[in-house]
Structures are given as structure tokens and as C-alpha cells.
Design a protein that fits this description.
By secondary structure, this protein is an all-alpha fold. It is built from one helix and no strands.
Length: about 80
């Protein structure tokens, strides 16, 4: 092996190692971004679910109040003597 072949071999290994390290670095950074975006989207969904649940409980309270009012009105109406 002469000097030129040795230089080509060393440069090929260096370029291959740099390429491999670059690809691995991009892969690990990509996986980290996917994990953080997954957690963020899950937190957003939980926040929307919490707001929706609060809305449902508010509406359920209104329905309960209107039901009680209606039952009271019907009970008072039956207490009146029939003509």
C-alpha cells in the first residue's frame, strides 16, 4: 500500500464516521422532538377535556335546577283545589 492509498483509506473512514455520527445525531434529536410533541399534544387534549367536563357539569347543574323548579311548580299546582 503506497502513501496515496493510505490517505484515501483514512479519509474514507473519517468521512464515513462523520456521516454515521451525523445521521445518529439527527435520529436521536428527532426522537426527542417526537416525544416532547407527544407529551405536549397529550397535555393539550387533557386541558380541552377538562374544559369540556366543566361545561358539562355546569349544564347539568342548570338542568337539575330547572327540574327542581318544574317539580315545585307541579307540586304547587296540585295543591290547588280542582274546580
Amino acid at each position: 500500500m503506497d502513501q496515496n492509498e493510505a490517505i484515501v483509506a483514512v479519509m474514507s473512514m473519517a468521512i464515513g464516521a462523520a456521516t454515521l455520527l451525523g445521521i445518529l445525531g439527527m435520529w436521536f434529536r428527532g426522537r426527542r422532538n417526537i416525544a416532547s410533541s407527544t407529551v405536549a399534544s397529550f397535555e393539550n387534549r387533557l386541558a380541552r377535556l377538562e374544559v369540556a367536563l366543566d361545561d358539562v357539569t355546569t349544564e347539568l347543574g342548570r338542568v337539575t335546577d330547572s327540574n327542581q323548579l318544574l317539580l315545585k311548580a307541579l307540586a304547587d299546582r296540585q295543591a290547588l283545589p280542582l274546580p
